[in-house]
Amino acid sequence: MPICTSCTHPTPFLYTVYQSAHNTRLEQCTACHAFADPYVEHDTLTLLLDLILLKRDVYRHLLFNRGLGARKAGRVGLVNPVTNAQEAQHGTNSSTNQANARRWYLIVRLGAALITVDACALSPGWFVLPDGGNRNWESESLECFVRILAGCVVETVAFHAGIMIACYTILTLLAWNHRSRRKTTADVQVSGIRREFRYSHVPLTLLYSSLTKLFLLFLLSIWRPAPSAAPVGIDATSIHPIAVSILRVFDEDQLDREWIVRNVLGGMAAGFGLRVVLDCHPVFTTAIILVGWAIKTAVAGLVSGWVGLVTHGDYDTPGEIWLAYSIP
Description:
Helices cover 60% and strands 3% of the residues. It has helices at 44-52, 56-65, 81-88, 93-122, 137-184, 192-196, 201-222, 241-248, 257-278, 282-307, 318-326; strands spanning 15-17, 24-26, 70-72. Strands 2-1-3 form a three-stranded mixed β-sheet. Helix 4 runs parallel beside helix 7 (201-222) and helix 9 (257-278) crosses helix 10. It holds the Pfam family Arv1.
């Protein structure tokens, strides 16, 4: 059943479709009396921009309401009873399994596209143009890209697997705590997100959250900041040595913007998405992200010797290149 994007209260219908083309009416939530889901009228570009901006309601729309909640009005203005019956059967096991299968299919398609984009964003910094006429440069570059793509696939699967394991553990503990509270207190209200949650929502949420990271990496790839002509000096005599060491972290030579976007901002976006879909305290989502990072780091260390086959920048060994961008 769809949910209200404002208060997560379950609602049978999101909008009503009339006989004339493009004539719809948004339904109000019975709990908060706001529009149940305003995003049903928005186009794909608006959804994409709101995903990049990490808006909570667009996550709820895409995860729980996409393609659901419509009812048709007859010629006399009454709701078609056949449509009502079909919507009422939405919660059955067969329709739930079909929705889950479609969700996994979307995960595979979206994951393949985003992993390819991630590999393309990571590859340009690894390729070095040959000084002389190296005929094997194209084949070597293609092999390098394939290895980077394979490394991104393995790393993404490991990160998602760690997140899934942590989510299962946290949700099991929360469910046990919920049952124990119900025995001692009155019936505890369960949100619509908890009722409609499936574990397939977790990887889909992570993929949606990665759009913010990929968008910022795209901006860095086409608009790299120019280094300052005269570096700003730091007077170490008037500033505490600890403050000097902290300020030097933000120097152009020390600051790796791609690493910050890929790991720090990417982790924050993933944590925000999990906070929406799991409907739990931010402490739990932070712990889940840390578990995913730990497993991702372990796997990155295993595949770094196979993926990093070129030297780049200040990194001498092949494994250092991959680990520099993979380990949070």
